[in-house]
Design goal:
The longest helix is centred in the N-terminal third of the chain and has 29 residues, at about 20-50. The chain has helices at about 1-10, 10-20, 20-50, 60-85, 90-95, 95-120, 125-150. By secondary structure, the chain is mostly helical. It is about 85% helix and about 0% strand. It has seven helices and no strands.
């Protein structure tokens, strides 16, 4: 795996990003924008699912919109995250906080788009699924902030 990360860091795009504060800053800003879309969509969808927001609107109606926003944010975050990762792959891959962040990202996205989605689609209160989904997304947010601060 170390040789794969070393190869990735040696690519032209990784060297360009690593050598440019403008590229790194721009990609970081876009990454944060994508993450904001993810967290905002997840917050609204899950707070509604637990019954604390927009109780007059149908859950499934808001859920579709929120899931599109989350999907858009994930796409932005994944593309920019991979590019940022490429510039420092060896160091970042060895970081335990980064590993936890990736594990929580996978768990939150899978849970949101499978278990939670099925619970909401049944048109029954999805409070437990919403609460678990919210907990996963919030844990991801805390871990992402910790990765930035502890890096």
């Amino acid at each position: 795996m170390a040789s794969l990360f070393a190869w990735l860091e040696a690519t032209g795009i990784a060297r360009t990003i690593a050598g440019s504060t403008t590229w790194t800053g721009s990609l970081s800003a876009a990454h944060v924008l994508g993450f904001t879309l993810v967290m905002g969509g997840a917050l609204v969808a899950n707070v509604q699912a637990i019954g604390a927001l927009f109780s007059l609107r149908e859950t499934i109606d808001l859920d579709r919109s929120a899931s599109r926003i989350i999907g858009t944010g994930l796409a932005i975050s994944l593309v920019t995250g991979i590019l940022l990762f490429s510039a420092r792959a060896t160091d970042v891959a060895a970081n335990d906080t980064f590993r936890l962040k990736m594990l929580l990202l996978i768990a939150a996205a899978l849970f949101h788009f499978t278990v939670r989605r099925r619970a909401v689609a049944r048109a029954k209160p999805a409070r437990v699924a919403g609460a678990l989904s919210l907990a996963l997304w919030l844990a991801l947010g805390v871990t992402a902030c910790a990765f930035i601060l502890l890096e």
